[in-house]
What we know:
Its EC number is 2.7.4.16. Pfam families: AIRS. The chain has 325 residues and is α+β, with helices and mostly antiparallel strands. It has nine helices and 13 strands. The strands form three sheets. It has a seven-stranded mixed β-sheet. Thiamine diphosphate is lined by residues 43, 49-52, 68, 167, 213-214, 260-261, 320.
Amino acid sequence: xxxxxxxxxxxxxxxxxxxxxxxxxxxxxxxxxxxxxxxxxxxxxxxxxxxxxxxxxxxxxxxxxxxxxxxxxxxxxxxxxxxxxxxxxxxxxxxxxxxxxxxxxxxxxxxxxxxxxxxxxxxxxxxxxxxxxxxxxxxxxxxxxxxxxxxxxxxxxxxxxxxxxxxxxxxxxxxxxxxxxxxxxxxxxxxxxxxxxxxxxxxxxxxxxxxxxxxxxxxxxxxxxxxxxxxxxxxxxxxxxxxxxxxxxxxxxxxxxxxxxxxxxxxxxxxxxxxxxxxxxxxxxxxxxxxxxxxxxxxxxxxxxxxxxxxxxxxxxxxxxxxxx
Length: 325
Ligand SMILES: Nc1ncnc2c1ncn2[C@@H]1O[C@H](COP(=O)(O)OP(=O)(O)O)[C@@H](O)[C@H]1O
Ligand SMILES: Cc1ncc(C[n+]2csc(CCOP(=O)(O)OP(=O)(O)O)c2C)c(N)n1
Ligand SMILES: [Mg+2]
Ligand SMILES: [Mg+2]
Ligand SMILES: [Mg+2]
């Protein structure tokens, strides 16, 4: 199958968003938004960096790549509406496997009524998937990393460390996989961006927010630095699945603090809004946990402290960093 037939095979038969004026089929797509601000974000997933074909089926490569991008829309407080896919395809990939990548994306896109409005197809040595997601946000409801204030509560949704644990199990397949650990594998393969939860919180004026792609150490430092505040968290409060305790303390620590790819939301909110935030979490079936608080910081350096085993230690940047030599 050649490039043009491939594009035809993935072209949507109809569009779900009334804002899509022109989707696939011309030099560029046209969208019409009048009342809302637009959010755009792009993230790339590359074979052997973000996934390995040894551990990830094509369906899940597509699903995870779109989920990671939708998660960034959620981390700004918005709703995803459309996406563009730029794909680099090695000639060894079959038409069926490519279709599975798109099926994975479609499963998630359908849930949010998102339109595939364009992209690019080229051949190359390694599979690479670059997805641009467009979303909308009501004015004044954007959730910046920089809006944490003194005495805010630090919260996180869901549970942390699941994805890194799932990846560990998949990468060490020679060890027999216990059925009870399937939960971790599923969380790695099919993360759920927290769109519904954050869109239920619109009554709250101010939330500072980040999504957990790199691990909470990095994400907390990003909030602290952008807001020029100090953050203090309690390790024992960081939520995790009970079965994570089957693994060593070191592994649990590493996965919860630096693992990343859980695509949970991490943020801060005024204590006056905590009850309201919990109601939104309940309404959307989202677990939410208070893990710390925000302090004023005379030096405004954005330091994060973690209480652990009776000591308070400074959290350093950790987790996955590209371009490290
Ligand atoms: N190559 C690049 N060119 C321009 N902007 C970039 C590039 N890489 C990252 N950015 C921008 O830097 C910021 C941080 O990116 P990143 O750490 O990837 O965020 P996230 O973890 O939310 O995906 C974002 O505003 C992103 O758009
Ligand atoms: C085969 C494989 N090895 C390692 C990882 C772990 N991993 C790869 S990238 C990454 C961090 C997130 O990716 P990044 O490109 O930094 O996303 P962004 O922060 O831009 O959202 C992690 C934890 C993985 N998912 N698959
Ligand atoms: Mg990114
Ligand atoms: Mg992000
Ligand atoms: Mg990153």
